[in-house]
Amino acid sequence: MDWSAKRSDPPPVPAPIGILLAMTAVTGIIDAVSYLALGHVFTANMTGNVVLLGFAFAGAPGLSISRSAMAMLAFLSGAVLGGRMTRNVSGHAWADRAFLLEALLMGISAISAFGMDSRAETHPLQLHAVIAVTAVSMGLRNAVVRKLAVPDMTTTVLTLTITGLAADSSLAGGDNPRWQRRAAAILAMIAGAFAGASMALHSISLALAICCGITGVCALTRQHLDSDRRKADAATSRGKRFLK
Which tens digits make up the pLDDT trace of 67-94? Predict the structure, then answer.
């Protein structure tokens, strides 16, 4: 894979809002699975995971320093990978490749979780493997979505989205900018968490496989749209040269 930099290439096409909302729902599923079935740890929401790590240091029952620390380290590793991809993969390609890699990691986590049940302590090796792989994928996603910088569409954390919904509302004297997008992001996360909680108690692997499928469809859709954009830009460029 050629990751040589091409700084003159155009920036990537931002992912459509529908794709980012679907990936927000995936985050809800991931955190539902990780918290409910992987031993009370978050692998996408690092704010929650940092707090849980503090609780674990204090000796709170049901929490684990090793699980939370592994999730954080794996997440950081994924973010480093995502950061390198956004700097070194040429042109439009880095976002497409990153989303496809996330889908692959989700598939690996689904395979790793095969045969597990919600009693995390009875599957220590599988447990830590699934925590690590899902956290890497979420760190990668965060780095990529951060680079895309679509307002109110972080796909993994909603604190600022919820704050903006209230602070920019008419009740606060604002004009409600992007309130539909913000509300949709909140609902997508809730829907994903609901689906994840419903599935996690029955099949961890199935829940992660569904995440793989959704992410894969999002990645391929974005890649197709990106390809269409490049073809349109090329046609426009040829037209301008012809007119000259």
Answer: 999 999 999 999 999 999 888 766 667 8
Q: Where are the domains of the chain?
A: 17-233
State the DSSP string of the chain: ------TTSPPPPPPPHHHHHHHHHHHHHHHHHHHHHTTS--SS-HHHHHHHHHHHHTT-TT--HHHHHHHHHHHHHHHHHHHHHHHHS-TTHHHHHHHHHHHHHHHHHHHHTTT--S-GGG-HHHHHHHHHHHHHHHHHHHHHHHHHT-TT--SS--HHHHHHHHHTSGGGT---TTHHHHHHHHHHHHHHHHHHHHHHTT-HHHHHHHHHHHHHHHHHHHHHHHHHHHHHHHHHHHHHHHH-
pTM of the model: 0.85
Question: How confident is the model over 14-70, as pLDDT tens digits?
Answer: 668 899 999 999 999 999 999 999 989 999 999 999 999 999 999 999 899 999 999
User: Which of 2.60.40, 1.10.287, 3.40.50, 1.20.1250 would CATH assign to domain 17-233?
Assistant: 1.20.1250
